[in-house]
Amino acid sequence: MVEPFFCAEESNTAGEDLIGCAVMAQFYVLVECPPPWSANAFHSNQIPDNLRTLVQALKQDKRTIRPLLIHRDRRQEPCTSVIILRQQDGVSFGYSKQEFQVSSLKEVAPLVSDYFNECHTHEPIGTDTRDILVCTHGSHDKCCAKYGQSFYRQAIATVAQLALNPDVRVWQASHIGGHRFAPTAIDFPEGRYYGRLDQDSFTAILTRSGNTQCFNHVYRGWGILPWAAQVLERALLLKYGWDWFKYGIVGRVIDHNEDESWNRVEITLVRADHTSEVYQADVVIDDNKKLHLRGSCGNTESYAVPQYAVKYLTKLAASAIP
C-alpha cells in the first residue's frame, strides 16, 4: 500500500528553509464567511455574484490587493466583518487596519468598492486587535486541513491560556500560500508570515519572549518587503532579538542579476528617537544546500528548490531621521 504524500512532511524532512516566501501585497481585504470553502474560495456557494465580480476586478487593479475569506468561532452575530489592511508608506511597521461591519455578504462588494474609490460612505468600527490568520483551507491543499485545522484549535486555546483575549483574535483563513509549510499563519497588522508553527513557537511570537532562534525554523518573512529583503530582515531580527519589533523598517533590492541568484539588498531600521542604521548585504543562492522537492501535494515530479544565504553583511550608517 502506497503511503499518502504530504508536501509539508517532505519539506520539513528535507530541512527546506521557509524564509523569503511571504507574499508582498499593498492591501488585504478580509471577508468573514463561514466554511466550507471551495478550492477557489471566492467560488464557494455562499459567495454572492457581486462579490465574485469584484474579486476579479481587484485582480486587475494596478495595486496589489489580496482578498481572503476568514472565519472564527464565536456566537452567531447578525453581522459580517470586513477588515481592510493597507501597507504603510515610507518607514513602515506593517499595515494600517480598518474594520467594517455589514449585515450580509451581499453588502461586502459595495463597501469594498467604495473604499478603493475613496468614497468614505461606511464608518469603520473601533478596533485595535492583533489578528492571527491560520490557513485551514483543506479543499485547496490537504496539508492545510491536516495541520492547519488542528493548529487553529490549539492556537485559540493558547491565546486563552495566555489571557490575551480579546486583544488577540485567531481566524481561520482561506489559502495564504506556502501550504508545504503548514501550519501557516499571517500576523496582522504587521503582516509577518509564519509556517511549521507549534505551540512553543506560537507562544514566543505572541508574547515576544524566549529564544528568537525559533525564527530560523518558522519565519517565512515580512510581507512588506521584497523576497530577497525578507532574507536579510530575518538575519537582522536574529541579530537584534525582540527589540527588532520596535523598529520601523524601509527595505529595498538595490540590484540583482537576471535569475536573481544574486541580490544586493538594503534595509534601514528607524528607532522611536528617529535615529537609524542602514545595512547592506548580498542575498545569494546557497550552493551548499541543494534541494529537489515535489513542493505541492498535487505534483508528481520534483524540481530544484533554491535556498539562500546572506553574505557580506555591512553596517553603512547611523544617522538621525528628520
From TrEMBL:
Coiled-coil ranges (or none): none
Entry protein name: Sucrase ferredoxin
